[in-house]
Design a protein that fits this description.
Largest sheet: 3 strands, antiparallel
Strand content: 5-15%
Helix content: 25-40%
Number of strands: 13
Low-confidence stretches: 1-34, 77-86, 283-288
Length: 543
């Protein structure tokens, strides 16, 4: 495995935020230049600074692996991410070879084991320190939370992985000859870690400690892990446990839905209680991946225009009467964006939208129709795009940054609903779906009453697709539900808009591409270079 040597960074710029706000003052510690690894655990404030570097390794769902971020509902422009990403991710042609996947997607194995090694080193340092037991207990719970989060990342992509809980010596090559634990062992380890970490985490951090892992963060991540376990094996006990843990988060009365779906990504004040776990991005490139705004803001507005939502996804946004466009009397095919779920306007630029006050032109021949030589779908991603940035190519020197969701309160409510429905409590499940739909500023109608378990399952899955669009959840959801092939294959459509001589528009659709999906792409392949280093690691099926 490609572990880097343990280091304490002299400049602490990590931006993890586990409940949206400005970067915590707890990061302001004594200078760290020339500090040795051994001396880090001589003082709690130095150990705390080291802990920050590990927080900074948390995943950034709006900053990696185009095809994953775009949730299988979007066509990525080849010029934005390069031919390999376009051909391999979008076309499900990736393999275990070097260069098959870009922007850290193919490197999740090495990246997360490196992160785990840092967490293990931190935990060992805390245990060997002379800190008071309450201080040790707090550090221990945060370190275990972070380690569990990295393991959940590995599980979501690979399932069973080696469980390593002690620092591995960089000089001991035999220490790396580990074998994979089973998927069942891996997910149970993750569940146990989140549960045990939650016991000693505070309900809410305030003041200079704002931004550290809270009890609700660990419990909510435990719910996510339990739903992986439950849905992959139809484990009724795991569904029941997930529902019980989700209720414990609600009982904390700590989190709430933000009243503006489009603006919540930019509000880092104490008023934003939506983000249970989030990454607070800094104005810089992260882990080698270009910034979300540079990649996805309109090309005509000075960015790349990389993410082009499909007509397939657009058609899944309901009308304000709660019905899909295909069956709603409110839908006008020649005024197709009127009377839509407000989350559509907050998530997708379309014909009739403006960017920085300038109308976008998605019609044939318009400035936004052709993107880098690719056939446009007629849409751009709008979610979490900041129009106040003056120059997206110089974003690294601006002061703007936003919250990248890892786990939002809306996600938790929908996971709770899923767990309830799968254990036969369908009417109770509707309560939490309807809470998400009734968010102030969204105000979508409640679900129809009297739905059976199968009908409610489809409603919950649809709600997750809409509420969490472009937040990476769709990629993982359709795999844990074992419906990836069903929903990923087939024609992908875009809008075809013609501007008439009188200035009006005629709306139609056009085939962009036809996608296929092989079952093996449910998981990522373990990079071949990792298997070459450790022959004890077995490759995932099909690779």
């Amino acid at each position: 495995m490609n572990y880097k040597s343990f280091a304490i960074y002299t400049t602490l710029t990590a931006g993890i935020l586990l409940q949206g706000c400005e970067k915590s003052k707890f990061l302001d510690t004594a200078p760290l230049n020339a500090i040795t690894a051994a001396s880090v655990f001589s003082k709690p404030e130095l150990a705390k600074a080291n802990l920050l570097t590990i927080y900074g390794l948390m995943p950034q769902y709006l900053g990696r692996g185009g095809g994953i971020i775009f949730d299988m509902n979007t066509r990525d422009a080849a010029h934005s991410f390069g031919g390999l990403l376009t051909g391999n991710l979008r076309g499900n042609n990736y393999n275990a070879g070097a260069g098959s996947m870009e922007y850290n997607l193919g490197g999740q194995w090495a990246i997360n084991f490196e992160n785990i090694r840092q967490a293990n080193t931190f935990l060992a340092g805390v245990e060997g320190s002379s800190f008071d037991e309450p201080v040790k207990k707090g550090f221990r719970s945060e370190g275990r939370f972070l380690r569990a989060a990295f393991y959940l990342e590995l599980y979501s992509f690979y399932r069973g992985v080696p469980i390593i809980t002690t620092p591995q010596s960089l000089q001991d090559s035999a220490a790396y000859k580990v074998t994979r634990n089973t998927a069942a062992e891996t997910i149970q380890f993750i569940v146990n870690e989140f549960e045990e970490a939650s016991a000693d985490l505070p309900v809410q951090w305030k003041g200079e400690d704002k931004g550290r892992a809270e009890k609700g963060a660990s419990l909510a991540m435990e719910v996510r892990a339990l739903l992986y376990k439950a849905s992959l094996t139809n484990d009724q006990a795991a569904y029941q446990q997930a529902a019980a843990v989700a209720q414990r988060v609600l009982d904390l009365n700590t989190y709430s839905l933000y009243p503006d779906y489009g603006k919540m990504f930019f509000d880092k004040s104490d008023n934003n209680r939506e983000f249970i776990v989030a990454y607070n991005t800094e104005p810089r490139q992260i882990n080698g991946a270009p910034d979300w705004a540079l990649v996805n803001a309109p090309e005509s507005g000075g960015a790349w225009g990389g993410g082009m939502p499909s007509q397939n996804l657009v058609d899944q946004f309901e009308m304000t009467d709660g019905k899909l466009p295909a069956v709603s009397p409110l839908y006008d095919p020649q005024d197709p964006y009127k009377n839509r779920d407000p989350r559509f306007e907050a998530s997708i630029y379309h014909q009739g939208s403006t960017f920085k006050g300038v109308p976008l032109q998605f019609y044939v021949g318009g400035k936004d129709y052709i993107v880098g030589g690719n056939q446009s779908t007629g849409y751009y991603i709008k979610k979490a795009i900041d129009e106040t940035i003056a120059n997206y190519y110089e974003y690294g020197v601006t002061s703007q940054h936003f919250l990248q969701p890892i786990l939002r309160y809306a996600d938790l409510l929908l996971m709770y609903a899923e767990a309830l429905n799968e254990t036969g409590k369908t009417d109770d499940a509707a309560i939490y779906v309807n809470q998400v739909r009734a968010r102030p500023g969204v105000n979508m109608p409640a679900l129809p009453t009297g739905l059976n378990e199968k009908e409610m399952r489809e409603k919950i899955r649809h709600e997750r697709q809409i509420e969490l669009n472009f937040e990476e959840m769709r990629y993982h959801d359709i795999r844990r539900w074992n419906i990836a092939k069903e929903v990923s294959e087939g024609p992908l459509y875009g809008a075809k808009i013609t501007r008439n001589g009188d200035g009006s528009f005629t709306y139609g659709t056009q085939l962009i591409e036809t996608r296929t999906f092989e079952q093996k792409y449910t998981l990522l392949p373990i990079p071949q270079e990792e298997i070459n280093k450790n022959p004890n690691i077995e490759q995932n099926d099909g690779f």
